[in-house]
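ok posting inputs for the 5'-O-(acetylsulfamoyl)adenosine job
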Amino acid sequence: MTDLNADIESLLTENRSFLPPPEFVRQANVNDPLIYEQADANFEEYWSNWATQLDWFKKWNETLDWNPPFAKWFINGKLNVSYNCLDRHLQSGRRNKAALIWEGEPGDWKVYTFGDLHREVCRFANGLKSLGVKKGDRITMYMPMIPELTIAMLACARIGAPHSIVFGGFSSESLRDRINDCGSKILITADGGYRRGQIIPLKKNSDEALEATPSIEKSIVVKRIGEKAKVQMKPDRDIWWDDLVRDAPYTFEAEHMDSEDMLFVLYTSGTTGKPKGVVHTTGGYLTGVYATTKWVFDLKDDDVYWCTADIGWITGHSYIVYGPLANGATTVMYEGSPDFPDKDRFWDIIEKYRCTILYTAPTAIRACMRWGEEYPAKHDLSSLRLLGTVGEPINPEAWIWYHTNIGGSRCPIVDTWWQTETGSILITPLAGLTTTIPGSATKPFPGIRAEVWDANGNPVSPGNGGYLVLTRPWPSMIRTIYGDNERFKEQYWTKYPNTYFTGDGAKIDENGYIWVLGRVDDVINVAGHRISTMEVESALVDHSSVAEAASIGRSDSLKGQAVVSFVILKDAISSSKILEDELKAHVTKKIGAIARPDKIFFTADLPKTRSGKIMRRLLRDIAEGHVLGDTTTLADASAIELLKDQYEDAE
Ligand code: 7RM
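and the output
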């Protein structure tokens, strides 16, 4: 926590504020300030009012069963997520409304109406059923950002088979471990995907992973690339998507799922080397994403809503697929990167589809800032009416740039804080109500209680830093870590009794606004993606030349944080540029390119406490060029100064 107070100083100087534009307030889905008190006074009734807006086969008889840390919401209620995202909109006149607008990286595109999406989801659900998939079976997806991914998710939800989506940038080993952790029966992948004009070899990685995944029976392969991908199909195991659905019926009755049945598991990095499978269930999760999408993004029937995340992360699950579709909205999905074929791709897509809402990450905004305002200036962005950010703290300069150059100084910005574990947005402005200050996620969403506590569990006074905690259950909260209730308790619920610990540091200001400062645990946030220091370290020590390794997140003006690793080599090995590159490649192979260290520094010693714990905060001070923090607990205080000098000489 020592670093936090330095960060706070700079944030406290921010004094620009932005009132909700009156013309926005007039039309906003929520513009009555009393909503906060009403929701807080009776939060169970408030959430059950939201749940009532969904379609249930059978209504619940009890709103909440809270047996900390285990929560159940909408007890004995029966519903289906796919039905709520599709069927009910067919009945309400949206059959021919665009549900999914998909833009491929090479510029190919496709629009699915709710009717189309319903038909394709039913066909694929029938295909899965023909392979023996039934309620409760787990299905892993390792796919590019193509419509089949959305279709597969909704088909799984329709059958009641929980999905586990693994981001396409992860390595075959990461994929293998995630398949084995939840024992998936089916893998859905593609012959490849496009990224900056290159082909991502998803099928090849899948083949490697499937060499050691005993639970997998079949692998379904989407033909995205064709000839050029040169994939090999394994006859007894691999099936082309098109072959599977060719003769499949157009309808499939949605399974009646219990509110607490698992909808999906999504792996995320924690403080140990092994990623945890965050479990989300049906009724609570859908209620959370439905409510927040409607209010935070002020979603209306004629909006064209675009979230630029990858569906491999929670943001894509909640705010490309489930939240928007549960609302009957038009959602945009883009396969590629923001700078391909040129640095105006985002702005071209907004102009092309006349997007009204854009939800993206600070890291993307900072990249665009660097490329220059001439790129957005080339395009008509006048369709936009609301902007959002997520994934990491946004620096005020990036906020102002976004507001001016993308929002034409007219669009409110919602800086939304949440996590894989929270399922939906928990801290955010409401654009029709909240005065925003660049850099602050402002206030808890109605019905949510978020506080900043000191180490003893007392709320900090305004202006001070502490730990961000959630003191009341909410519908879309994590239910457990897949197969590991103990780890679930230990990770989130032991720091303070009956209170969810987020792992983030934050500050509260005089207005009660929350300023999230970033992780206080061993999690690094690279371009909005979570990586644990331990994961990177295990990958490094897995290399035959490495004796010991420590990794930290160094602040980076583009990515938020970048990985820097300190490595002790085995006795007979000497350091070299070649070895440095080899180690970086090794981490990429073990985890994926997102975990690749920006810098590897070879050292003879690491700063440790007398009990042998590596003091990563001192390594961070070194990598960031700060004065060393408190070194009194070090076993050998002299070595650290030497390490600092050596590091600075090498820079
Ligand atoms: C949605 C998502 C969660 C971590 C979280 C924070 C950081 C996310 C913000 C933010 C400051 C924000 N899920 N974070 N949003 N920090 N302001 N608006 O990102 O599970 O992948 O990451 O991301 O540290 O704990 S996540």
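notes: The two ends are 27 Å apart (CA to CA). The pocket of 5'-O-(acetylsulfamoyl)adenosine is lined by residues 268, 313-315, 390-393, 415-420, 441, 502-504, 516, 518-519, 525, 528, 530 (CB under 6 Å).
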